[in-house]
Write a structure and sequence with these properties.
Chain lengths: 311, 217
C-alpha cells in the first residue's frame, strides 16, 4: 500500500517508515446540519458488506442500540433542554475518531494488528488480531467491538480502501445534507471555522470544533453547537486521553519489568559463579550410621538422632 | 544404596508441585508473550496469537486450582516463628553460604515462607484480575475503569510471580539437594540438619519414638 504509508504499528518498538510526507486527512461531522436520517449507517453497511442483526426498538431512535462488530457507525440521539427551556435534538454520528495518538494501538499486544497510516487513518488488520480486546481497554472513546462470530476486533476504517484510491468515505458520499465532509485536515479545520462563525452569528455562542488535544487531535472531528459541553452529545468525552492506567500498563513499566526479570536471572547466575553452590558435607556427621547397617540389626542401636554430639 | 533416609515430600506432594510448575511455565510463557512486543514470538509455542489468547486463561485457572492443592498441603508449615525473623536478619550470612551463626529453622526457612505467601497473594491477584479481563466470558460484566485496573494489576502480579519463581528456581539449584528432594522425595540427615534443623529434630524424634530421649526440643 504505497499510497498509504504505515507510520505506526501496534506492538512494534522500532520506527516505522516515515520519510514521505503525506497530507493528513479528516472527516468533519457537523452535528448542527445532521437530520438523523441514518443514511451514513446504511452506506457504511453497504460499502463494508456488513449486515448487522435487525435490532429492537429500545425507546429511542438509536438503532442499533450500540456500536457492534457489524455496525461501525451509529447515530446517537439526545433530547436536550436548554437553559431557556427550548428542546434541542442533538444527533451525533458515533464511530472511531482516528486519534493521532490512538489508545487502541498503544494497548494492542499483536504486532501489526493495529496500524496508523501516514494520512492519519487508524486501521485494524483482523488477520493479525488475536481477539484479546486490549484495544477496547485502551480506547478513550469506547469504539472497538469484538465479534462473537470470529473473535476479532472491528471498527470504522474511515474507508481506508476508498481513501487509498482517492475516494471519500462511504458515509460522506451519501450524506444528504452535507453534514459529513472529507478532505485534508487543514481544509476541514478551515471549513469548520467558517461554520462556527455562522453558528455564532445565529446565537450559538459556544459553537466550536471538537478536535481533542488529549489524543493529539483526531482525524474525525465534530462541529458542535455546544462545544463547551461535549458530554451532552450522548457522552462525548470532555477531555479524552489515553488513561494513565493504560499508560502505566503499556508504558515504561513493561521494559523495566523485563529488565528486572533478566537481572534476577543474571544475579542468580553470578551468585553461583562468585559464591557457589551450597553443598551438604555428608561426612561431617560420621556417627550417623549407614541405614543399611541399621536395618540389618535393629537391635543394635547405632542409630542416634542426636548424632551430632550435642550435650 | 543411598544415605537419603528422610522423606521430605510424598509422591502426591511432588506430583502436585510439578503439575503447578508445568502449568506455571505454560501460563507464564503465554502471558509473557502478551506482556511485551519483544517476546510476542512466544505465542508460536502455543499455536499462534489467537490460540495463546484462548489457552492462557484456562492454563491460568488450572494452575490456580492445582496451586490451591499445594496451599492446603503446606500452609501449616509456613507460619512464621521467632527464629524466622532472626534468620532474616542473618540473610547476608545465608547468601554467602556461611551458616555458622544462622539460627535453626523448621521445615521451611523465612525465605521459603515469604515465597509461599507471596505466591498465594499473586495467584489470588492473577485469578481475580484475570477473570475481569477474560474478554470471551467475563469482561462484559465490568466497567472500563475496573478492566483497566485489572489489566495493570494482572501484569504486576504476573511480574512479581515470575520474579519470585526465578528466585525459587535459583534457590533450588544453589542449595544442593533441594531439587532432588522435590524430584525423589528423600533428603539426607546431614542435609536436613544443615538446612532445617528444627524440622530435622522433629522428624528424627518421630522416627525413633521407642528411644527414651531426654533431649529438650
Amino acid at each position: 500500500m504505497a499510497s498509504q504509508d504505515i507510520i505506526a504499528r501496534s506492538a512494534t518498538t522500532t520506527p516505522a517508515p516515515s520519510v514521505r510526507n503525506q497530507e493528513a486527512v479528516a472527516k468533519l461531522i457537523d452535528t448542527t446540519k445532521c437530520i438523523g436520517c441514518k443514511a451514513c449507517q446504511v452506506a457504511c453497511s453497504e460499502w463494508n458488506e456488513l449486515r448487522d442483526e435487525v435490532g429492537h426498538n429500545h425507546g429511542t431512535y438509536d438503532n442499533p442500540q450500540d456500536l457492534t462488530a457489524e455496525s461501525w457507525t451509529l447515530m446517537r440521539f439526545t433530547e436536550h433542554e436548554t437553559d431557556a427551556g427550548n428542546l434541542e435534538w442533538l444527533i451525533r454520528k458515533d464511530g472511531c475518531m482516528h486519534c493521532a495518538e490512538p489508545g487502541c494501538l498503544a494497548a494492542c499486544p499483536s504486532p501489526g494488528a493495529i496500524i496508523k497510516h501516514a494520512n492519519g487513518i487508524v486501521d485494524f488488520d483482523q488477520d493479525h488480531c488475536i481477539g484479546c480486546g486490549y484495544c477496547i481497554t485502551g480506547c478513550p472513546f469506547n469504539i472497538p467491538r469484538i465479534s462473537q462470530k470470529d473473535h476479532k476486533a472491528y471498527k470504522c476504517t474511515l474507508c481506508s480502501d476508498r481513501v487509498a484510491v482517492g475516494l471519500e468515505p462511504a458515509c460522506v458520499k451519501t450524506c444528504p445534507t452535507g453534514a459529513i465532509v472529507f478532505g485534508s485536515k487543514e481544509d476541514m479545520k478551515t471549513h469548520a471555522a467558517e461554520r462556527i462563525v455562522d453558528l455564532k452569528s445565529r446565537g450559538f455562542d459556544n459553537a466550536g470544533l471538537y478536535d481533542p488535544e488529549g489524543v493529539g487531535g483526531t482525524h474525525v472531528m465534530y462541529v458542535l453547537h455546544h462545544a463547551d459541553t461535549p458530554k451532552i452529545y450522548a457522552g462525548l468525552p470532555e477531555n479524552p486521553a489515553i488513561s494513565p492506567l493504560v499508560g502505566l500498563w503499556k508504558g515504561i513499566s513493561k521494559p523495566l519489568g523485563l529488565l528486572a526479570m533478566g537481572a534476577a536471572v543474571l544475579a542468580g547466575f553470578f551468585h553461583y559463579v562468585r559464591i557457589g553452590p551450597n553443598r551438604t558435607e555428608e561426612d561431617e556427621h560420621p556417627d550417623v550410621p549407614d541405614t543399611s547397617v541399621h536395618q540389618v540389626d535393629p537391635a543394635v542401636h547405632t542409630f542416634d538422632p542426636r548424632g551430632e554430639g550435642r550435650p | 544404596m543411598s544415605n537419603k533416609t528422610i522423606l521430605r515430600y510424598t509422591a502426591n506432594q511432588r506430583t502436585n508441585h510439578w503439575l503447578v510448575a508445568i502449568l506455571f511455565f505454560m501460563a507464564g510463557l503465554s502471558g509473557l508473550a502478551l506482556f511485551h512486543p519483544s517476546i510476542f514470538w512466544l505465542t508460536h509455542l502455543f499455536g499462534g496469537g489467537p490460540w495463546t489468547r484462548i489457552l492462557h486463561p484456562f492454563m491460568g485457572v488450572l494452575m490456580f486450582v492445582l496451586f490451591l492443592g499445594l496451599v492446603f498441603r503446606f500452609w501449616r508449615s509456613n507460619f512464621f516463628i521467632d527464629n524466622d525473623w532472626k534468620w532474616l536478619r542473618r540473610i547476608d550470612r545465608v547468601l554467602v553460604n556461611d551458616e555458622e551463626t544462622v539460627p535453626a529453622v523448621g521445615k521451611y526457612n523465612a525465605g521459603q515462607k515469604l515465597l509461599f505467601w507471596t505466591l498465594l497473594l499473586c495467584m489470588l491477584g492473577l485469578l481475580f484480575t484475570g477473570l475481569v479481563i477474560w474478554r470471551a466470558y467475563f469482561s462484559a460484566y465490568f466497567g472500563i475503569t475496573t478492566i483497566r485496573w485489572a489489566m495493570l494489576l494482572h501484569a504486576l502480579a504476573g511480574f512479581v510471580l515470575i520474579l519470585s519463581i526465578i528466585i525459587h528456581i535459583y534457590a533450588g539449584l544453589w542449595i544442593k539437594g533441594s531439587v532432588d528432594a522435590m524430584l525423589h522425595g528423600w533428603v539426607s540427615r546431614a542435609w536436613a540438619k544443615k538446612h532445617h534443623e528444627l524440622w530435622y529434630r522433629e522428624v528424627t524424634r518421630e522416627q525413633a519414638p521407642e528411644r527414651p530421649t531426654t533431649k529438650k526440643g
